[in-house]
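Q: I have 72 residues here and want to know how they pack in 3D. Can you give me a structure?
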Amino acid sequence: MNQILTIAQLVLSVLLITTILLQHRGTGLGGAFGGESNTYRSKRGIERFLFSSSVVLGVLFVAVAVWHLFLK
């Protein structure tokens, strides 16, 4: 069971890092790939998906870490 939790935590950490790095602070998704935008707007489409998935992955990561801690 410990190995499964360790692998799950590793996979969640890689996915969490990926979703956070794809978000570019203060700009749209195009800013991460060279485009710029100086206007404020709400998150839509892929930006909203990346934000929501990073929150979900963060909660799952913490839950697996706590679960792993209690099993040791």
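Q: Anything worth noting?
A: The chain has one domain: 2-71. The mean pLDDT is 83.
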